[in-house]
Amino acid sequence: MTLSSYAPNLSGTGGSIKVYLNGQLIGVWNGLDTTGTPVPNGFYHFVLEEHDQSGNIVILARDAYIATNGDQPAVLLAALPNVAHTGDTIQFYASFAGISADGQSTIKIYSVAGEWIKTLTFANGKTSWDTTNNSLQQVASGIYLVVLDGVDPTSSQKVHKIIKVMVLH
Length: 169
Fold this sequence. Notes:
Layout: E1 2-3, E2 7-8, E3 15-21, E4 24-29, E5 42-51, E6 57-66, E7 75-80, E8 83-85, E9 90-96, E10 99-100, E11 106-111, E12 116-121, E13 126-129, E14 142-151, E15 158-168
Parallel strand pairs: 8-15
Antiparallel strand pairs: 1-3, 2-3, 3-4, 5-6, 7-9, 9-10, 9-13, 11-12, 11-14, 14-15
C-alpha cells in the first residue's frame, strides 16, 4: 500500500490523499470527518485490512501528514509512535513550511540526563530509530529528547526543534 502526498484544494481549505494497492488506485480520502468538516492538521494513520476466504488477515498501514486548513507550520517534527515498546521502530517526520527535510537535517537523540544516544539523517522528510544507541545496544526504558538540527530550504536558516519520545520495555 502506498499513499500519495496530500493534495490541498486550490481554495486553500481541504484536499485529498490517494490510496494505492499494488500500484492501482483503490480509494481517495477527502480529508473530511464524518460530519463533512476538514480534519485538523496532523499525522493520520491509514490501515488497509484484507480478509481472505481462508480466514487469514493481512494488515497494511501507512502514515501521512494532512494539512486541511492550508496552514503549514514553520517547523514540523513528529514521532510515530511517540511511545515505543521493545521491537518498535520510531518514525520521525520533519518539514519546514511544508517542504520535507533533507540530508542537511539531522536528529540527535539524548537521554534526559543529556547523554548523546544516536544521530539520524533525513531523506525525503523521514528517518527512523530502532531504539538502539550508537553501539547498536537497546536503550533503557525512559524518556528521550529528540533534537532536530535542520536547514530551512527556503531561507537557508538553521532551525532547531525538540520533542520527547518514550521507550518502554
